[in-house]
Amino acid sequence: MEIAMKNCMSCERSASCILGRLPETELREISKRVKSLYYVRGQVIWQEGVYRPGCFILCQGRALLTVRKSGEAKRRILKFLQTGDLIPCVNASHNGERIYNDFVVQVEAETPALVYYLPASSFRSFVMRHPSVATKVIERLSVVARELLHEIWISSYCDVRARVARVLMELQGAAQFERQPLLRQVIADLVGVNRKVTNKALYNLMEEKIIAIQDHKIEVLDERRLRELQV
Amino acid sequence: MEIAMKNCMSCERSASCILGRLPETELREISKRVKSLYYVRGQVIWQEGVYRPGCFILCQGRALLTVRKSGEAKRRILKFLQTGDLIPCVNASHNGERIYNDFVVQVEAETPALVYYLPASSFRSFVMRHPSVATKVIERLSVVARELLHEIWISSYCDVRARVARVLMELQGAAQFERQPLLRQVIADLVGVNRKVTNKALYNLMEEKIIAIQDHKIEVLDERRLRELQV
Predict the structure, then answer these.
(1) Which among A134, A152, A156 has the least Cβ separation from residue B138?
(2) C-alpha B43, offset from chain centre
(3) Nearest CA in chain A to B193
């Protein structure tokens, strides 16, 4: 637990973390209550209706917020979660009921990940004594809600080429670009269409010399035009 | 203010309201801090980046949570808000910055509406003294986030007929059904496609004798099959 606490004290993401900027004594207190959970790449960190309620913070590594239909492999990636991010599945009640039977919201480790978990009862009692943490959680969740609203608009009304351009702009420079075998599927999952449709849009961008694809590697040739195209 | 407070004390939606079940003394206290805002039908209650930060509760009437592209009439309806609902745009900071320049999240009165508004500073100080309210806000926002995730899946991967069936099931029996001239546009805005595509799906359901359309009125003839069709 001392390691966990030390991490918080020296964490470079403390500005964006809900526990960031807490006084040292309070960090020490919370470090006694958090459970450190380690995940390998691909492992499910949280799944609606299955995992216990509480508050999860991604302390190291990256994760994906996804939604899938029960029993289907197809997933939609909604958000890349970074170190310091709150996993937006906070549930302060003891009742971890699933809301939808057919759709599963899930958070998956995209890299090896360390997560701090505050069980619902600890989270509630901590918030009772440190309500400033609660207002941070509220703000973070409001931002997530607005990002999701934005995403719904895009999924409903914007064409696939513009959505692919947006995803490429977002992924550019990100570590995702280095793991090429995954990339096209990741793009498809982020855009919310199948691989065939994604490939067609990528091919189209290639023909216009906005991107180049060689040995399955995607390279952005004309960032200005890609930016113009994006949603 | 006494009227506002009285409403809270006798409100039949207190179970779902973030202020519900507070002791009378606390309700009295909060009633001194809330601002009662009245809206006519169609008026904007909240708009991202324009309205002041804080917490809004819909006390009477119905409202729509929508997203639109700046300068376009086209809107996507994300959620019907009912009496007692938190308007999911809580922002406890003084900084009401807009996150996206091109997309506007907005809450519109669908009927004449009464809203309680707690400005950011009052909301923060109230939460500091009543953290149980904060945990209710957190839970409500988590549920909204999950509903939006679900909606993103549906918008991405489900066909229009299934989505129209779902919307018809949801609207069935609701007051929306009574105001027929609006209905088809509301269905289109809820499904996230244009009216032409919506009409085609409705026509298709009519041909299969699942619904009837007469004098612009939509009637569900076969609820069982409609339920089977829905997402």
Answers:
(1) A134
(2) 14
(3) A156
Amino acid at A157: Y
Paired tokens of A178: 């280095």
Start-to-end Cα distance in chain A = 44
What are A89-137's pLDDT values in tens digits?
A: 766 554 545 455 577 888 999 889 999 998 888 888 888 888 888 888 8
Contacts of A104 in chain B (CB under 8 A): none
CB atoms within 10 A of CB A132: 17
Report the domain count for chain B: 2
Question: What is the pLDDT at residue A6?
Answer: 56
Contact call for B138 and A92, based on CB within 8 A: yes
The amino acid sitting at A18 is I
Domain boundaries, position B181: 158-229
Dihedrals φ, ψ of A158, to 5°?
Answer: -100, 145
Nearest to B149 among A78, A90, A141 (CB): A78
Q: CA-CA distances (angstroms) from residue B41 to A44, A153, B35, B38, B45?
A: 45, 24, 19, 10, 10
Average pLDDT score over chain B: 82
Q: How confident is the model at residue A207 (pLDDT cuts 50, 70, 90)?
A: very high
Q: In the structure encoding, which two tokens stand for residue B29, read together?
A: 């206290």
Quick one: what percent of chain B has pLDDT higher than 90?
A: 23
ipTM attached to this prediction: 0.81
Of B67, B135, B146, the CB nearest to A149: B67
- Closest chain A C-alpha to B58 CA, distance in angstroms: 17
Quote the DSSP letter at residue B94: S
The count of CB pairs under 8 A between chains A and B is 148
CATH for A196: 1.10.10.10
Residue B94 pLDDT: 46
What CATH number is given to the structural domain containing B13? 2.60.120.10
Strand order in the sheet with A113-119: A35-39, A113-119, A54-60, A86-87
Question: Does residue B130 sit in helix, strand or coil?
Answer: coil
Kindly report the average pLDDT of chain A as a whole number.
82
In this structure, the answer to whether residues A52 and A145 fall within a common structural domain is yes
Beta-carbon contacts of residue B178 (< 8 Å; ≥ 6 apart):
none
What are the beta bridge partners of residue B119? B54
Contact A92 B135 (CB under 8 A): yes
Are the C-beta atoms of B125 and B7 separated by less than 8 Å?
A: no
